[in-house]
Model the fold of this input.
Amino acid sequence: MIPKSCTLRRMERTDVPALAQGFAAQGWNRPASYFDGYFDDQDAGTRQLLLAEYEGAPVGYLTLIPQAHEGPFAAAGLPEITDFNVLEAFQKHGIGSALMEEAEQMARRLAPIVTLGVGLHSGYGPAQRLYIKRGYLPDGSGVWYQDRQLHSHAECGNVDDLVLYLSKPLWVRDGIRLRPYQPEDLPAVLALFRETVHRVASRDYTPEQREAWAPAQPDLPRWEDSLSAHYSLIAEAEGRIVGFADLDSSGYLDRLYIAADFQGRGAASLLTDGLEARAVGLGLSSLRTDASITARPFFEKQGYRLLREQRVERNGISLTNYAMEKALPGQHIETN
Done:
């Protein structure tokens, strides 16, 4: 909850003089020129700047980039919260928590996990405590120094360049959490897919149809290429993969499968919610899918409308499915 008399909004260039003055008064080097590159990024759509105002005066800010550029998450395609600062006189008023809460909501539209790096000297103490309270955990790669992983017994200085990286899952519900698909997940994903088709869809499709749909020898290159190219999510619970789904850049929901013994426990809704958040974040106006007979009732409950019944061919066998579509709300990023 945003504290009384505190407002969160997009940072503008006109906010910088007051911010720079506030930081200079407490001995921090944040001249107006420090923010120039940030605004260039914001104009280009590669960074979002979030400002906190208290009684009309700028008192803190943070930035969110859609993909981490440094550290252990640099190649993971995950958003990163960077350069998070609240003026000392306004710390411990809930303003930092409000900034973090809004940044996490913004990040949820981009990925199921948000990342950040925090310095290790005492100046970062308040931030360290805040991150742990909010559920951030170290990634396991140890500390980094000057953007390099610091190995055992290596020498370094306890300066701003000494960083510990943390992450937080943003999509967690009823013990189920979402994370990005990784190539090493493919064997488990394929096993789940085949078992789900042959067990869950057995009331709607014949054994011959199910075998054509989910053969014992799948087209591995096709699966590898599409899951890697799409926005693909894994649902985990009880220490295992219990579902997966993927979305292409046009808004087509290609696959949604939940383990046969995990049906009806919320994994499918969590996955579709995660994909829809991503689609809204990309500015898409609708989602489309081709739902099986078995899955059609679920998609109808999720707000999809039927476009048409259709016959498709899988390995020479004809199957029935349904073209369906769901309208999405307009994109909304700024908070006032």
